[in-house]
């Protein structure tokens, strides 16, 4: 059982919980995910199963799209609705025009400080472990890029947003910083991830349904070769298949058809067997292909 599994995560379980439940349902021990969702968050969780766990890092780096509700007037110590309120609620809230002006600050590329209650490491310890013990947490800002940020509605103190951002962006931090920019405080009330890289939640299975399908989920997996369609692909000869499987460099004589080395910026090259399955990912260097991830 090898491939990518798209799950529509419900509110409640952690991402680790989802992985554990899929392991139990399928009997496959090698299951991982390509980016966590908080327990309160719902939506797309991209899982990698079997040998596809070896390409998890390549699937985790794409942009993510979210729909969220930011609640104005109340700050919390976790920057979301699970946290302890800080200070008294603010009852005089900004108007729509002020919110739209403030949102302009969070488009494009800028520095974002992760939430104190996050999995970021501080001296080898997770930040949220320190924060829960009320120990000082100082996290370095991270460069992030927001390519889309739209206010799609307003319901009293709730501001509904849709956004697309680079990997590593914290929507909780956006809620915190938006409240600070507006001078009224805010926290993240609800979050749903609708897209991760090239994958859309519309193609995902609800967790309960995936558990019901169990071992037959093998038929629902996206093959690794199809999970990375943007990467250049080459077909291997019989000799090339053996060499790639053993991690040996490959030359033109190991490939079926003429091959033009891609630019270094094109990323890894997919090395495909005759039947189309992904055998390895390689870097082009010195006129040869050097396998860096071998699926076999």
Give an overview of the whole structure.
- This protein has 296 residues and is an alpha+beta fold.
- The chain has 3 domains: 3-62 and 198-222, Pseudouridine synthase, CATH 3.30.2350.10; 64-196, Pseudouridine synthase, CATH 3.30.2350.10; 231-294, PUA domain (Archaeosine Trna-guanine Transglycosylase, Chain: A, domain 4), CATH 2.30.130.10.
- Helices cover 21% and strands 34% of the residues.
- It has 8 helices and 19 strands.
- The chain has helices at residues 15-26, 56-60, 96-103, 127-132, 171-182, 207-213, 224-227, 238-245; strands at 3-9, 31-33, 42-49, 64-72, 75-76, 85-86, 108-112, 121-122, 125-126, 142-155, 158-165, 186-196, 199-200, 205-206, 233-236, 255-256, 269-272, 278-285, 288-294.
- Helix 1 packs parallel to helix 6.
- The longest helix is centred in the N-terminal third of the chain and has 12 residues, at 15-26.
Report low-confidence residues grouped into runs of 5 or more.
Answer: none
Q: Please count the beta strands (DSSP E, at least 2 residues each).
A: 19
The CATH topology assignment of the largest domain is Pseudouridine synthase
| SSE arrangement, N to C | EHEEHEEEHEEEHEEHEEEHHEHEEEE
Major sheet: size, sense and barrel closure?
A: 10 strands, mixed
Give me the secondary-structure category.
alpha+beta
Assembly annotation: single chain
Overall 3D geometry? elongated
Radius of gyration: 22 Å
The tally of structural domains comes to 3
């Amino acid at each position: 059982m090898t491939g990518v599994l798209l799950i529509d995560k419900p509110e409640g379980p952690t991402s680790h919980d989802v992985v554990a439940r899929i392991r139990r349902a399928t009997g496959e021990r090698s299951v991982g995910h390509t980016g966590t969702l908080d327990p309160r968050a719902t939506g797309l969780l991209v899982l990698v199963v079997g040998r596809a766990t070896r390409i998890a890092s390549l699937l985790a780096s794409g942009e993510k799209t979210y729909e969220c509700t930011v609640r104005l007037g109340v700050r919390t110590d976790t920057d979301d609705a699970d946290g302890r309120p800080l200070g008294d609620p603010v009852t005089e809230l900004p108007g729509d025009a002020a919110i739209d002006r403030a949102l302009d600050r969070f488009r494009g590329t800028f520095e974002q400080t992760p939430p104190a209650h996050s999995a970021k490491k501080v001296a080898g310890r997770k930040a949220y472990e320190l924060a829960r013990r009320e120990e000082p947490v100082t996290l370095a800002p991270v460069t992030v890029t927001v390519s889309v940020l739209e206010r799609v509605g307003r319901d009293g103190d709730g501001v509904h947003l849709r956004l697309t951002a680079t990997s590593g962006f914290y929507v909780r931090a956006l809620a915190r910083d938006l409240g600070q920019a507006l001078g009224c405080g805010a926290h993240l009330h609800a979050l749903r991830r609708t897209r991760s890289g090239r994958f859309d939640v519309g193609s995902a299975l609800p967790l309960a349904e995936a558990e019901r399908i169990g071992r037959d989920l093998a038929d629902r997996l996206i093959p690794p070769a199809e999970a990375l369609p943007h990467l250049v692909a080459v077909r291997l000869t019989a000799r090339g298949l053996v060499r790639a499987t053993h991690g040996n460099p490959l030359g033109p004589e190991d490939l079926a058809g003429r091959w033009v080395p891609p630019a270094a910026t094109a990323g890894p090259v997919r090395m495909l067997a005759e039947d189309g399955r992904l055998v390895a990912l390689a870097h082009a260097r010195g006129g040869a292909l050097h396998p860096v991830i071998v699926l076999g």
